[in-house]
């Protein structure tokens, strides 16, 4: 009987090791990554393949998910503490929800345990989005994987033709847009995404912030309906007069098409992933004619919107040590250089932006770094998705003329108060 019990225990132990093949104790580690599709997924796969080549005992399952699917799957898994994923990507406006809930491993403590510190080469505003509370000394819960930041593009040839300098203030930009729209046949003065929700909000925020407006103040009070916000929205509506008909339904495809074909004098919103072929003559009709810069300012300095993608380790992961080692590898200088060269993944390390070959390939790199270092993060709240939806709806109503600027801000103030109070 004792032999049978011993045999049974051996079998159960063996089964447990086999069934928990993801566990570090087994010697073989399978790291599951809940990542994004597109170039972000390709970059993560590249890092995983390179890591396995160096550490054959570690293999990876890289899930390449859409933004919506990634959010839904990770929230469900982290809430249940199932531990399906060892590394997850997080869009930075969602980070507060993940950080506040206590779902993520403390990377600062893991650095300390390893006798290491965070590399100061990380661009600090990007690194800060991975901290909670959102402060320079907040607990580090995520590392910046992709240095996405909103940029601004304009036709240098047309600005020069009509006697305009590079726009430093939004008010100056409006004069140029109006002139070019009226005088240049076949060219609209400006292009942007006008679809409700995230698209229209994303294009509007750099204007909103530069006019000194805020959605919530430091104490969490709703301040979206302010004189500063009204000035910003009135400016935006005036600017929209020089956009194409139907701009209220425009998405990224229409903006990219206008930039690449040169049918717009300027775009108030472009992203690194949208413009990585801008200097390729087989794709672009405006090679050497479009300059990408950070946004103009107005009352406040230029306020580009940060769109960092963060990488984190779920607290429920069974492979924290292996995941942490890989996370450092995937965000290392060498790996970020390879990602930038191959997939165009926007770096989060300052020194990568100084590489001459990359600056030649991506001439806007100095501006991209400038925007990252001076960028503004979206309001740090667990209710950002709901706030963005309400703000985006009101903005589109104002854009199509169904509401005045005053009515739109009064409505969104009421809606946001219902969300946060």
What is the 3D form?
A: globular
Indicate the percent of residues in helices: 40-55%
Instruction: State the order of secondary-structure elements, H for helix, E for strand.
Output: HEHEHEHHHEEEEHHHHHEEEHHHHHH
Largest sheet: 5 strands, mixed
Our estimate of the beta-strand percent is 5-15%
How many beta-strand segments?
Answer: 10
Low confidence ranges: 1-25
Span between N and C termini? 66 Å
Structural class of the helix and strand makeup? alpha+beta
Radius of gyration equals 24 Å
> In what order do the strands lie side by side in the largest sheet?
2-1-3-10-6
Q: What is the overall number of helices?
A: 17
Give average pLDDT, whole number.
93
Would you mind describing this structure in some detail?
With 421 residues, the chain is α+β, with helices and mostly antiparallel strands. 45% of the residues lie in helices and 11% in strands. The chain contains 17 helices and ten strands. The chain has helices at 2-19, 38-54, 67-80, 95-100, 107-113, 124-128, 156-161, 170-183, 198-210, 227-239, 252-261, 320-330, 333-342, 356-361, 365-373, 384-399, 405-420; strands at 29-36, 58-65, 87-91, 131-132, 139-140, 143-146, 151-155, 266-270, 290-293, 309-312. The strands form three sheets. A five-stranded mixed sheet has the order 2-1-3-10-6. The protein has a three-stranded antiparallel sheet with strand order 8-7-9. β4 (131-132) and β5 form a beta hairpin. α9 (198-210) packs across α16 and α16 runs antiparallel to α17. Mean pLDDT is 93; it is low at 1-25.
């Amino acid at each position: 009987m004792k032999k049978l019990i011993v045999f049974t225990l051996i079998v159960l132990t063996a089964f447990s090791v086999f069934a928990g093949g993801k566990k570090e104790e087994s010697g073989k580690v399978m790291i599951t990554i809940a990542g994004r599709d597109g170039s972000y997924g390709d970059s993560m796969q590249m890092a995983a393949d390179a890591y396995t080549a160096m550490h054959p005992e570690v293999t990876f399952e890289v899930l390449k998910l859409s933004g919506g699917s990634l959010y839904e799957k990770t929230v469900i898994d982290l809430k249940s503490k199932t531990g399906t994923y060892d590394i997850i990507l997080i869009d930075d406006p969602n980070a507060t929800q993940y950080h506040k809930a206590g779902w993520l491993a403390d990377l600062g403590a893991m650095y300390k345990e390893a006798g290491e510190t965070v590399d100061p080469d990380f661009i600090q505003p990007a690194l800060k989005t991975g901290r909670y509370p959102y402060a320079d000394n907040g607990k580090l819960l995520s590392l910046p994987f992709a240095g996405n930041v909103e940029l601004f593009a304009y036709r240098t040839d047309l600005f020069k033709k009509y006697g305009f300098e590079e726009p430093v203030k939004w008010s100056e930009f409006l004069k140029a847009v109006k002139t070019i729209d009226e005088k240049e046949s076949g060219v609209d003065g400006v292009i942007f995404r006008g679809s409700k929700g995230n698209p229209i909000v994303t294009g509007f925020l750099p204007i909103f912030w530069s006019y000194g407006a805020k959605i919530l103040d430091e104490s969490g009070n709703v301040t979206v309906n302010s004189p500063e916000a009204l000035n910003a929205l009135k400016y935006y509506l005036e600017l929209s007069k020089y956009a194409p008909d139907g701009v209220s339904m425009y998405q990224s495809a229409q903006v990219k098409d206008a930039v690449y074909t040169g049918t717009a004098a300027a775009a108030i919103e472009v992203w690194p992933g949208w413009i990585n072929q801008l200097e390729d003559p087989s794709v672009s009709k405006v090679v050497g004619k479009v300059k990408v810069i950070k946004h103009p300012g107005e009352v406040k300095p230029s306020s580009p919107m940060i769109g960092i993608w963060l990488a984190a380790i779920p607290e429920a992961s069974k492979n924290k040590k292996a995941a942490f080692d890989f996370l450092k590898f995937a965000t290392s200088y060498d790996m970020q250089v390879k990602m930038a060269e191959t997939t165009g993944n926007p770096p989060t390390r300052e020194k990568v932006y100084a590489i001459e070959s990359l600056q030649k390939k991506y001439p806007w790199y100095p501006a991209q770094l400038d925007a990252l270092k001076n960028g503004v993060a979206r309001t740090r709240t667990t209710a950002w998705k709901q706030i963005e939806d309400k703000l985006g709806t009101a903005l589109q109503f104002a854009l199509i003329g169904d509401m005045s600027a005053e009515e739109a801000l009064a409505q969104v103030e009421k809606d946001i108060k219902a969300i946060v109070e």
